[in-house]
């Protein structure tokens, strides 16, 4: 009973902490001044100063009026002028800062609505029945949505959602213990494959450009942390490792004693055949070899590769039609080959 009560208290505390993060106002500073003097303090200072200047204006104006009524020497109006200027200046600063705060709150409302529409924010009802929203956990799906928006905007050479769905289905059907990808880029297809892996499986993604390898490592790490926070996601997310280097040297060297169940080729099209031949000694019987852009590069960089897998007795190969990433009007597809070389095959 004590353990159950402690567990319930801990869950209630965690839920309270999550709800405190819900519907945060825009308090992020935009410049050094906002770091030094936050808006609430600025509003107090400008409002108080404007009120003080107004009071001083009334006092100095009253004194000036008395001098004029007595007909004494010409009065000095500089004090009144300074007070009037201060009143107008600080009142204007107060109003401008207040309007800026309202504009930022309105902007946050628009951002929240866009996040809900894009699936990055979820709507919930708290214990008091209030409708609220909060950002979703950063997991593989969260990162994939952003990579897709990046891909569409800048026409990035990711595999894309259409071919990605085909790839995920192939990986899930094969249920590999070890999958290898050549050509990581930002990690889009690595995350798609990782989500399709069975529990305990592993994906190794090899990228030759160290800058992209670092980008992919970051996204893969973020996705893994998110998956750990969710049991359901964690159970289906396989381990994903990003290697930096030339796959033509990495494959025969570091994987010589392992058996590859799925090999996805998405690097330089003219090097696909070299990637495949470097991996062949490690391919398991019945291994699935999937090559991206087998439609758009069929008569270009993939000509030798396609001729090899379609004519070699080591493979049974077929073309799976789809469309080019981010271009539904451009035909493309995946070349899906099954390795039938057998246990005795060695390069």
Automatic annotation (TrEMBL):
> What PROSITE patterns would the database entry show?
SAM_OMT_I
Which positions make up the signal peptide? none
Q: Which GO terms describe its biological process?
A: catecholamine metabolic process; methylation
Q: What class of enzyme is it?
A: transferase
Q: Which SUPFAM superfamilies match?
A: S-adenosyl-L-methionine-dependent methyltransferases
Q: Does the keyword S-adenosyl-L-methionine apply?
A: yes
Q: Quote the Pfam families the UniProt record gives.
A: Methyltransf_24
Keyword terms, alphabetized: Catecholamine metabolism, Membrane, Methyltransferase, S-adenosyl-L-methionine, Transferase, Transmembrane, Transmembrane helix
> Matching Gene3D superfamilies, A to Z?
Vaccinia Virus protein VP39
Family, per the entry?
Belongs to the class I-like SAM-binding methyltransferase superfamily. Cation-dependent O-methyltransferase family.
Descriptive protein name: catechol O-methyltransferase
Originating organism: Elliptochloris bilobata
């Amino acid at each position: 009973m004590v353990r159950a009560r402690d567990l319930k208290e801990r869950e209630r505390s965690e839920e309270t902490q999550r709800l405190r993060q819900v519907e945060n106002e825009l308090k992020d500073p935009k410049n050094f001044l906002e770091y030094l003097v936050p808006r609430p303090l600025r509003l107090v200072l400008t409002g108080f100063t404007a009120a003080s200047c107004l009071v001083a204006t009334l006092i100095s104006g009253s004194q000036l009026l008395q001098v004029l009524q007595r007909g004494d020497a010409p009065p000095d109006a500089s004090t009144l002028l300074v007070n009037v200027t201060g009143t107008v200046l600080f009142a204007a600063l107060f109003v401008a800062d207040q309007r800026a705060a309202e504009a930022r709150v309105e902007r946050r409302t628009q951002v929240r609505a866009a996040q809900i529409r894009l699936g990055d924010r979820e709507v919930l009802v708290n214990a008091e029945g209030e409708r609220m929203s909060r950002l979703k956990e950063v997991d593989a799906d969260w990162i994939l949505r952003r990579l897709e928006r990046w891909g569409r905007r800048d026409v990035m050479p990711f595999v894309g959602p259409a071919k990605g769905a085909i790839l995920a289905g192939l990986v899930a059907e094969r249920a590999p213990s070890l999958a290898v990808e050549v050509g990581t880029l930002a990690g889009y297809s690595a995350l798609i494959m990782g989500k399709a892996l069975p529990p305990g499986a592993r994906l190794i993604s090899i990228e030759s450009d160290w800058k992209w390898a670092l980008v992919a490592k970051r996204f893969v790490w973020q996705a893994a942390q998110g998956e750990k926070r969710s049991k359901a996601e964690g159970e289906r997310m396989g381990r994903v490792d990003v290697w930096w280097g030339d796959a033509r040297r990495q494959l025969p060297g570091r994987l010589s004693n392992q058996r590859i169940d799925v090999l996805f080729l998405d690097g330089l099209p003219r090097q696909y055949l070299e990637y495949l031949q470097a991996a062949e000694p490690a391919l398991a019987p019945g291994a699935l070899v999937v090559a991206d852009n087998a439609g758009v590069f069929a008569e270009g960089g993939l000509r030798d590769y396609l001729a090899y897998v379609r004519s070699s007795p080591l493979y049974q190969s077929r073309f799976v039609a789809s469309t080019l990433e981010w271009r539904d009007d451009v035909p493309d597809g995946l070349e899906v080959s099954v390795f039938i070389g057998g246990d005795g095959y060695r390069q």
